[in-house]
Hints:
Blueprint lengths: L12 E6 L5 E5 L2 E2 L8 E9 L2 E10 L3 E3 L4 E6 L4 E5 L4 E3 L3 E5 L2 E14 L1 H8 L2 E7 L1 E2 L6 E5 L5 H17 L9
Antiparallel strand pairs: 1-2, 2-4, 3-4, 4-5, 5-11, 6-9, 6-13, 7-8, 7-12, 10-11, 12-14
Helix pairs in contact: 1-2
Amino acid sequence: FSLAFATMANAQIIKNTLDSDGNRFITCEKLNVRSFTDRIVTYVNLGYMNNQYYLSFQFDALNPLSIEKGGRVLIRTENGNVLTLTINSSDKDNIGTIETAGNMVLRNYSITTIMFVTKEDIINLSSGVSKFRIEMDNIDLTNGYFEKTYKSDKIGEKVLQDYRAIAKALKETKKFEDGF
């Protein structure tokens, strides 16, 4: 399987910057990869910073959430491989934000975390993701982790689309002064 010959829809890059130290930051748009009945809503995207790719998950729930740096993420691909990734950033939301849905007022809690991935990890993920498990704290989780199984791949396709968009963006020369 080659990343170069895959045919997917184009991903949307929402951030493509270069800081004064020459570090490149590229972020793709998040994709909602939840089922309608999920109590914790999951978003995923791929990004690039400091010459490394990263996989990012955002989780939204109606109860406080927290995730710790060094925690583990297990991802099973559709071809049976299991990737073990390490969470690179802690995040905690005990306050939440107030949102309205029709005549209902809800408090939404949201956390985001990243895991650095290699090109080999991206190739494995692009074969399709059937399940993931991530260490997390939430009142609805009595076991200390959140797990999601997919009937059809959503994450692998998204990772491949984002990888191709980032690879294309990296071919373009970027200067700190651009757009000034």
